[in-house]
# Entry
Amino acid sequence: MSDLPDWLNSAIPAPARHGGLAIAELGGERNLGRGGFKLSSPAFGPGEELDPCFTAQEEDAVAPPLEWSAPPPGSQELVLIVEDGSATGSDPACHWLVWGLKGQKGMLLEGEVPPRAGKNTQGNSEWLLPDPPVGETRHYVFQLFATELPLTLMPGATRDDLVASLKGTITGCAVMVAPFTGSETEEWVDDED
# Structure
């Protein structure tokens, strides 16, 4: 695992600074927050803990809602990559790959199926529910990229495919980090027996 570039240190807290994050490879100091480009969520603020309803803690969990401001002029498409910045290996675990988002101000609603999705670390095209071990805090890095060209990738592409197709096309990027600490899940007991 390499170190995160210095220009990202103010945007990503120390426990989430995995050098393999997509933004470290694709972003750049001049593109981070360019033109006021920002990513946020109505469900949690920057650095606030993910609600269990977006994690493996709840049976019917879904992806969190996300909102973004207008990307820099000339942006054709937006791409979202969510990774575990607390990972210890050479690559952070990929939780969500989304593209096909219009290059304008917009949002993804809670649990909304995105236009196109790629394969997460487990090989499926869904929001990979955060599931850290009990007592362990992981930091999930939501990375949004604006591109100057629309992507031609088919749904189900891998993270490597997506990153390769984005190189040299980024007009702006935004980042947001949300931690989540694993805890014991409560067992439901049916009292009607």
Summary: DSSP finds two helices and eight strands in the chain. The beta strands are 39-40, 66-68, 77-84, 94-102, 106-108, 116-117, 137-147, 170-181. The CA atoms of residues 70 and 104 lie 5 Å apart. The mean pLDDT is 92.
